[in-house]
Specification:
The complex is a heterodimer. Chain A is of the alpha/beta class. Chain A has two domains: about 180 residues, 3-Layer(aba) Sandwich (Glutaconate Coenzyme A-transferase), CATH 3.40.1080; about 35 residues, no CATH class. Helix content of chain A is about 30%, strand content about 25%. Chain A contains ten helices and 13 strands. In chain A, strands 1, 2, 3, 4, 5, 9, 10, 11, 12 and 13 form a ten-stranded mixed β-sheet that branches. In chain A, helix 2 runs parallel beside helix 3, helix 3 packs across helix 4 and helix 5 crosses helix 7. The longest helix of chain A has 14 residues. Chain B is an alpha/beta fold. Chain B has one domain: Glutaconate Coenzyme A-transferase, CATH 3.40.1080.10. In chain B, about 30% of the residues lie in helices and about 20% in strands. Chain B contains nine helices and 14 strands. Chain B has a ten-stranded mixed β-sheet with strand order 4-3-2-1-5-10-11-12-13-14, sandwiched between helices. In chain B, helix 1 crosses helix 2 and helix 2 packs across helix 8. Chain B is globular and about 45 Å long. The mean pLDDT of chain B is about 95. Classes of the chains: A alpha/beta, B alpha/beta. At the A-B interface, helix 4, helix 5 and helix 6 of A face helix 3, strand 9, helix 4, helix 5 and helix 6 of B.
């Protein structure tokens, strides 16, 4: 089955109020072309589940997020995303703030179709007091330990960006870290993958077999997206565009300059974005 | 060594966190703890495993000796417990509660920071220390706004599962080294860096400190100083974090 589609076709599948998981980590291998496509729609009231980077900042700035499930939001080399900070400080988004390990455990419970999984992380912290819906579970064995029961983080849709995929949805990472993209894919009813390059299935064997992170059974749609993680990293295809990320962060911090950033980079399609980024690089 | 800088003392104090640690994963967050961990491995803690901050464990010669992607860290390395993390702290209180999440009320903060990250899990699973380059009353507060890293009082309140592996070890700052070696596990001033007085530290701390056994932080010896200056930080990045 040929699952190729455009980023705009993927974005058209989203509905108001959906729970969307976004792969990658911080400012690393984020499905930014798919995020930019979402910014061009009028979908809103999303619950976003993310080890957050600029994906969260951009969606928050566009007013798409009703609730964020997160352990952090950071641009890595720039500690804070200004849009996310603004959204929190103005009370524009509700949050479910988890420890990083709790977040992973919630995804894992969803993958395994369990209602919850126990974890030690979170006990004694304000993760418990700021999430009054959380419950504990007592070990039925002799130790009797009382642990936190992290509810399954079930997703309507997962969006991930990988280095290579074939048209049927088998997808491959070539960098050093898979992040949690396979868990996002399996925790979701539907997973859309963008990839730097769509290749023949036979070409997926040119890297070690362990790099085949997703098989096609977990993938609904595949989007060709060269530089689709920009300005986040997609090692080994490219590193983070630090100069552009600084430009994003500076623009996001200044309400007067943000509209011109949106106008130049986000108001057209992906081709316009990439050509403006190329112009930005030449000027730098 | 009369020309030893304050930050070099701090690097050595961070290295001392790992003395006798054995073959565990050291996870230093930030420059000074990272320099300290590297110095420790080159001297008195040669068996330490060190991450590159990405997905690799690198040995002292820079060879990849292990694979440690984030999923492995959270699924296995943290809960398995053979790890010592050194985190930063925007706020820290008398019992070692740390905040890196937000300043002000959590529902609508005055200032959003990183988020709790892995601090809740780190602190109830394995040894944790803290580093701050700005020892002052804004960091050393009566009560943190969002408990991210769990201190001794909150671990006790949360019960046996939270206490079982809880081990907040030390706090290293630009002025001093502190620990929790008191009967009620409240913070104690362990040593002041050369040139710093006990009063300097007390003035810059919002809560009372046990000062019954304060010593002076050890100076690096000639070989340690050479390693700091020529091997672990030849470009003197350390001077940007703690000015002399």
């Amino acid at each position: 089955m040929d699952k190729r589609m455009t980023a705009d076709e993927m974005a058209a599948e989203l509905r108001d109020g959906m729970t969307i998981g976004i792969g990658g980590w911080g400012s690393r291998r984020k499905p930014m072309a798919l995020i930019r496509a979402i910014l061009r729609t009028d979908v809103k009231d999303l619950t976003v589940v993310s080890y957050g980077g600029p994906d969260v900042g951009l969606l928050a700035a566009a007013g798409k997020i009703r609730r964020l499930v997160f352990g952090f939001v950071t641009l890595d080399t720039v500690p804070f995303d200004p849009h996310f900070a603004q959204a929190r400080q103005s009370g524009a988004v509700d949050v479910t703030e988890y420890d990083e390990g709790m977040f992973a455990t919630g995804l894992s419970a969803a993958v395994k179709r369990l209602p919850f999984l126990p974890i030690r992380a979170g006990l004694g912290s304000d993760v418990v007091t700021t999430n009054p819906q959380l419950r504990t579970v007592t070990s039925p064995y002799a130790d009797g330990e009382e642990l936190l029961a992290v509810p399954a983080l079930r997703l309507d849709v997962a969006l991930v960006h990988l280095n290579r995929a074939d048209a049927r949805g088998n997808a491959q990472y070539l960098g050093p870290d898979p992040y949690f993209d396979d868990d996002f894919a399996l925790a979701a009813d539907r997973c859309f993958v963008s990839a730097e390059r769509i290749v023949d299935t036979a070409d997926l064997s040119s890297a070690p077999v362990q790099s085949l992170l997703l098989n096609r059974g977990a993938v609904t749609g595949v989007v060709t997206a060269p530089h689709g993680a920009h300005f986040t990293s997609a090692a080994p295809d490219y590193g983070r565009d630090e100069a552009f990320q600084r430009h994003y962060a500076a623009s996001a911090k200044d309400p007067d300059s943000w509209p011109s950033f949106v106008d130049r980079f986000l108001s057209g399609g992906e081709a316009r974005y990439q050509s403006e980024v190329a112009r930005f690089r030449e000027a730098a | 060594m009369s020309d030893t800088t304050r930050v070099e003392v701090a690097v050595l104090a961070c290295a001392e966190l790992f003395r006798d640690a054995g073959e565990i994963v050291a996870s230093p967050m930030g420059l000074i703890p990272s320099l300290g961990a590297k110095l420790a491995r080159l001297t008195f803690a040669p068996d330490l495993l060190l991450s590159d901050g990405q997905a690799y464990l690198l040995d002292a010669e820079g060879h990849v000796e292990g694979w440690q992607p984030f999923k492995k860290v959270l699924d296995v390395v943290v809960p398995h417990g053979r790890r010592h993390v050194v985190m930063g702290a925007n706020q820290i209180d008398r019992f070692g509660n740390q905040n890196i999440s937000a300043i002000g009320p959590h529902a609508r903060p005055d200032r959003q920071l990183l988020g709790v990250r892995g601090a809740p899990g780190n602190t109830v699973n394995h040894r944790t220390s803290y580093w701050t380059p700005k020892h002052g009353t804004r960091v050393f507060v009566d009560a943190v706004d969002v408990v991210s890293g769990v201190g001794y009082d909150n671990a006790r309140k949360a019960g046996p599962a939270a206490i079982r592996f809880h081990d907040v070890h030390r706090v290293v700052t630009n002025l001093a080294v502190l620990d929790f070696g008191t009967p009620d596990r409240s913070m104690r001033l362990r040593s002041v860096h050369p040139g710093v007085s006990v009063e300097d530290v007390l003035e810059r701390t919002s809560f009372p400190l046990d000062t019954s056994a304060v010593t002076e932080t050890r100076l690096p010896d000639a070989e340690e100083l050479r390693l700091i200056r020529e091997v672990v930080d030849p470009k003197s990045m350390r001077d940007k974090e703690v000015p002399s």
